[in-house]
Specification:
Blueprint (H helix, E strand, L loop, with lengths): L2 H25 L5 H9 L17 H16 L2 H7 L9 H22 L7 H25 L4 H19 L3 H11 L12 H15 L14 H16 L1 H36 L4
């Protein structure tokens, strides 16, 4: 399991737990872990409200809101890591990117529960900007990973894989490699034919690989050959689409950053209004 997959699993478990707590606090408070902890530490509980409340403006809602906003602010450490010279040697950039995306997914999850699934008024503008930023962030990571390595390095790796495949499959190698390219969404596409439709096919190919599916062979072959074919096909696709991915990443930056700025601006206005005017929603 890769580092990013671990982050996604962690995010999923946290969301499931929050959904469980949200449901139990409404329907069966006695089954809520948060409710028991609130009684233990006297958090948001008094004689008038013996059960922890999920309503806007109450301690739990505010805690989720501040936590979500704080986590969203943490995403900016990735930008600092890229741009501030003092931080250039603070870990590898891909690791920071994965953490950036993780926080960009976790923060919105907390915000969603903070709103109680009721998004209206000024906060709805920030909320939907946040959704767009989080979603586009995952897409941006995908594009970034495709061009993370130099084209020359990809060509060398693909050539090594091709040599190993030809050694294993001999005369069937060309057919197997062609099928593998189709499997990962490259097919017979050329540089001039790379379109968003081709990108969609490559996304489907990567999804199939992510769930453990590998290119079909139809012939007897040494163990590990299908995995080798998958790695070869992905490298060849990255080489073929390299310029296209670079161009899309440029467009992505132009789309992602304004929404991120607007999200923070409206969020700050919402927080200021809540603190100064007592507006809870």
């Amino acid at each position: 399991m890769t580092r990013f997959q671990k982050y996604v699993l962690t995010w999923t478990l946290i969301c499931v737990w929050l959904a469980y707590e949200y449901f139990t606090l409404i329907k069966i408070p006695d089954l809520s872990l948060l409710n028991h902890l609130a009684h233990e530490f006297k958090f948001g509980i008094n004689d008038k409200t013996p059960t922890l409340s999920i309503q806007a403006g109450r301690p739990l809602s505010l805690a989720l809101g501040w936590s979500g906003f704080g986590i969203m602010l943490v995403t900016n450490f990735y930008i600092f890591r890229k741009r501030i010279g003092l931080m250039k040697n603070w870990g590898k950039l891909p690791g920071w990117l994965d953490f950036h995306i993780f926080c960009g997914m976790l923060g919105p999850a907390f915000i969603v529960f903070h709103t109680g699934f009721k998004v209206r008024g000024l906060v709805s503008i920030s909320f939907w900007s946040m959704v767009i930023v989080a979603t586009s962030g995952v897409i941006g990571r995908y594009l970034y990973v495709q061009i993370l390595k130099k084209r020359s390095d990809l060509q060398n790796e693909a050539a090594e894989s091709e040599g190993a495949i030809r050694e294993r499959l001999s005369k069937d190698a060309d057919t197997a490699m062609s099928s593998a390219l189709i499997f990962v969404g490259a097919g017979n596409a050329t540089h001039s034919q790379v379109t968003l439709a081709v990108l969609f096919k490559s996304l489907i190919g990567d999804f199939k690989l992510a769930i453990g599916s590998l290119p079909p062979l139809g012939i007897a072959a040494p163990k590990g050959t299908r995995l080798l074919l998958a790695k070869y096909a992905v490298k060849k696709r990255q080489i073929l689409f390299f310029d296209f991915y670079q161009k899309l990443l440029g467009y992505w930056h132009s789309f992602h950053l304004p929404f991120a700025f607007f999200m923070y601006l409206v969020a700050v206005i919402h927080i200021a209004a809540a603190l100064l005017l007592g507006v809870n929603r």
